[in-house]
Amino acid sequence: MLHDNWGIKRGLMSTVHAATATQKTVDGPSSKDWRGGRGILENIIPSSTGAAKAVGKVIPELNKKLTGMAFRVPTSDVSVVDLTVELEKEADYADICKAMKAASEGELKGVLGYTDEKVVSTDFVGNTAPSTFDADAGIALDKTFIKVVAWYDNEYGYTCNMLRFVKHVAG
Q1: Mean pLDDT of successive 10-residue segments in the chain (171 residues)?
Q2: Burial classification of residue 134, based on how many CB atoms lie within 10 Å of its CB (0-12 exposed, 13-18 middle, 19 or more buried)
Q3: Residue 53: what pLDDT?
Q4: How many folded domains does the chain comprise?
Q5: Residue 101: CB partners within 8 Å, gap ≥ 6?
Q6: Which residues form the domain of 67?
Q7: C-alpha torsion sign, points 17, 23, 26, 27
Q8: Residue 23's pLDDT is what?
Q9: pLDDT for position 44
Q10: CATH code at 53?
Q11: CA-to-CA distance for 20 and 31, rounded, in angstroms?
Q12: Which class for 59: exposed (0-12), middle (13-18), buried (19 or more C-beta within 10 A)?
């Protein structure tokens, strides 16, 4: 959406990700990295993510223009993406919100959700949209430097997305 309408020069992405089954419940050894061995129940754990690289593979024009990291947090479900980008064309944050809302009701219905309510993570448990744009959580420094926020259910929602994909491939 952002890239199609305004172009993305570059960006940084952080995912605040709920705990997963692969994480330790108490401190212990990790073959991947030291932080990964720390207990998820009492820590916010900085971690790597392949999400930004994946965007570059799906949208080749954005390859090497995005990078990111994750923070693993002690919640059981629902994660959020914080994307900060420099746009190629100027845009008011209100116009970005309008475009996201229109897309969520039109060509991206069922794929992109939209909210302008004062939500928190548990409000998205069971949400089947791959991502829900949170208009109230984003900000803009100026007309080309913005932060957008999107929520997703990384358990049930992910499963629903895999089923959508299987149906699409089976066609």
Answers
A1: 96 95 88 88 92 86 94 96 98 98 97 98 96 98 98 92 90 82
A2: buried
A3: 81
A4: 1
A5: 114, 133, 135
A6: 2-170
A7: negative
A8: 87
A9: 96
A10: 3.30.360.10
A11: 16
A12: middle
